[in-house]
Protein backbone atom coordinates (compact mmCIF):
# COMPACT_ATOMS: atom_id res chain seq x y z
CA UNK A 1 0.00 0.00 0.00
CA UNK A 2 1.42 3.46 -0.89
CA UNK A 3 2.39 5.86 1.85
CA UNK A 4 0.09 8.84 2.36
CA UNK A 5 1.49 12.03 3.89
CA UNK A 6 -0.77 14.58 5.53
CA UNK A 7 0.28 18.20 6.16
CA UNK A 8 -0.84 20.26 9.13
CA UNK A 9 -0.24 24.03 9.23
CA UNK A 10 0.48 25.63 12.62
CA UNK A 11 1.86 28.87 14.03
CA UNK A 12 4.47 28.57 16.78
CA UNK A 13 5.28 31.53 19.03
CA UNK A 14 8.33 32.38 21.11
CA UNK A 15 9.73 35.34 22.95
CA UNK A 16 13.27 34.10 22.23
CA UNK A 17 13.65 33.59 18.45
CA UNK A 18 12.19 31.96 15.32
CA UNK A 19 14.01 28.67 15.86
CA UNK A 20 12.38 28.33 19.25
CA UNK A 21 8.98 29.12 17.70
CA UNK A 22 9.48 26.29 15.16
CA UNK A 23 10.66 23.86 17.84
CA UNK A 24 7.66 24.73 20.00
CA UNK A 25 5.19 24.12 17.17
CA UNK A 26 6.74 20.74 16.36
CA UNK A 27 6.88 19.72 20.03
CA UNK A 28 3.25 20.68 20.56
CA UNK A 29 2.14 18.82 17.42
CA UNK A 30 4.09 15.74 18.51
CA UNK A 31 1.90 15.49 21.61
CA UNK A 32 -1.08 14.45 19.47
CA UNK A 33 0.32 13.59 16.02
CA UNK A 34 2.24 10.37 15.37
CA UNK A 35 4.70 9.66 12.56
CA UNK A 36 5.93 13.25 11.99
CA UNK A 37 8.36 13.07 9.08
CA UNK A 38 9.31 16.70 8.44
CA UNK A 39 8.64 20.38 8.86
CA UNK A 40 8.62 23.27 6.39
CA UNK A 41 8.91 26.85 7.62
CA UNK A 42 6.42 28.78 5.50
CA UNK A 43 6.64 32.22 7.10
CA UNK A 44 8.37 34.08 9.92
CA UNK A 45 7.10 37.26 11.55
CA UNK A 46 7.70 39.22 14.74
CA UNK A 47 6.28 42.18 16.58
CA UNK A 48 8.45 45.28 16.90
CA UNK A 49 8.48 47.39 20.06
CA UNK A 50 10.82 50.31 20.60
CA UNK A 51 12.81 49.27 17.54
CA UNK A 52 13.41 45.72 18.84
CA UNK A 53 11.98 42.35 17.85
CA UNK A 54 9.49 40.73 20.22
CA UNK A 55 7.10 37.79 20.03
CA UNK A 56 8.56 35.74 17.19
CA UNK A 57 6.06 33.73 15.13
CA UNK A 58 6.76 30.92 12.67
CA UNK A 59 4.13 29.43 10.38
CA UNK A 60 5.12 25.81 9.83
CA UNK A 61 3.79 22.92 7.80
CA UNK A 62 4.24 19.64 9.63
CA UNK A 63 4.18 16.48 7.52
CA UNK A 64 3.25 13.12 8.95
CA UNK A 65 2.60 9.67 7.56
CA UNK A 66 -0.99 8.47 7.76
CA UNK A 67 -1.30 4.99 9.27
CA UNK A 68 -2.97 2.87 6.55
CA UNK A 69 -4.40 0.53 9.22
CA UNK A 70 -6.17 3.28 11.13
CA UNK A 71 -9.88 3.66 10.49
CATH-level-4 superfamily name: Flavin-binding protein dodecin
The helix/strand order is: EHEE
What low-confidence regions span 5 or more consecutive residues with pLDDT below 50?
none
CATH architecture: 2-Layer Sandwich
> Mind telling me the C-alpha Rg?
15 Å
> What is the strand tally?
3
Note the total helix count.
Answer: 1
Q: Order of strands across the widest beta sheet?
A: 1-3-2
Mean pLDDT: 93
- Counting helices, strands and paired strands, the structural category is alpha+beta
Question: Helical amount among residues, as a percent range?
Answer: 10-25%
How would the global form be characterised?
Answer: elongated
Determine the N-to-C terminus distance.
15 Å
Which CATH first-tier class would you pick?
Alpha Beta
Tell me the strand percentage band.
over 45%
**CATH topology tier name:** Dodecin subunit-like
Q: How many domains, as an integer?
A: 1
Largest sheet: 3 strands, antiparallel
Amino acid sequence: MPTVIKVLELVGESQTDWTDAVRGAVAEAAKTVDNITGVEVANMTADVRDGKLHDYKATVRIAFAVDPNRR
